[in-house]
Write a structure and sequence with these properties.
The protein is mostly helical. It has one domain. 85% of the residues lie in helices and 0% in strands. The chain has five helices and no strands. The N and C termini lie far apart (35 Å).
């Protein structure tokens, strides 16, 4: 159960990181304290790295379950999940 909860939390992390980067980059929200171009790019690359590491651990966990139906279900959910994350990133 602990491994499942860790996988679940790693899937939820982009939904916290991406809005933080988005809102701190908007001058209409942050005024003079908005992120500059360097911090937008650096933050985006760091978020991408964190998401890739988390996706690796999710794939490793699902592969350790050794059940074909779980592979198919995880594949479908991964496509939906990555599509939604791409939608969030498109707003940046």
């Amino acid at each position: 159960m602990n491994d499942f909860l860790n996988v679940l939390m790693s899937l939820q992390l982009p939904f916290a990181l991406i809005p933080v980067l988005t809102f701190t980059s908007l001058p209409s929200v942050m005024n003079d304290f908005a992120n500059g171009l360097f911090w937008k790019v650096a933050g985006g690359l760091l978020i991408l790295l964190i998401c890739c590491i988390n996706m690796y651990f999710v794939v490793a966990y699902v592969m350790s379950l050794n059940h074909v139906a779980l592979y198919i279900g995880a594949g479908i959910l991964s496509v939906i999940y990555l599509s939604f994350v791409a939608y969030l990133v498109s707003w940046v």
